[in-house]
Amino acid sequence: MIRILMVCLGNICRSPLAHGILDSKLDTEAFKVDSAGTSNYHIGSLPDKRSVAVAKKNNLDISNQHGRQFIVEDFETYDYIYVMDKSNFENVIKMARNVEDIAKVKLILNESHPSKNLEVPDPYYGGDSGFDDVFNMLDKACNVIAKKLKQ
Known about the structure:
CATH architecture: 3-Layer(aba) Sandwich
Low-confidence stretches: none
Order of helices and strands: EHEHHEHHEHH
Number of helices: 7
Structural class: alpha/beta
Largest sheet: 4 strands, parallel
CATH superfamily: Response regulator
Number of domains: 1
Shape: globular
Distance between the termini: 14 Å
CATH class: Alpha Beta
CATH topology: Rossmann fold
Number of strands: 4
């Protein structure tokens, strides 16, 4: 089984969306998708209601996910670790134990926009349209990821 982890800051907006989107594109018998945050702000919390709403609008249900914090052991558990922005990339890399751990970590939008190092903006303090924009960015990146993983 191939394991993929999506990471943002609080694990209530972007990474739960990425988790749900990619999970919907892969065979759950062959792939396991999860999400985490680099902070401990929302451990045990449900995704932000706006993330749940935009997912539902796109026929996905992420309402059963719960926030958790990224831990060093995630490097052992997951084959791919996709982060939403440069700050979280740095936070995850700081926890890496070796070059193999570092090699697993990628900015998610580099999948849909190779080598551009673009970031998924945090929609938390914005309006509902920010969640739509984030969903669309993540959907495009997850299409590329899913295609690569299925090959």
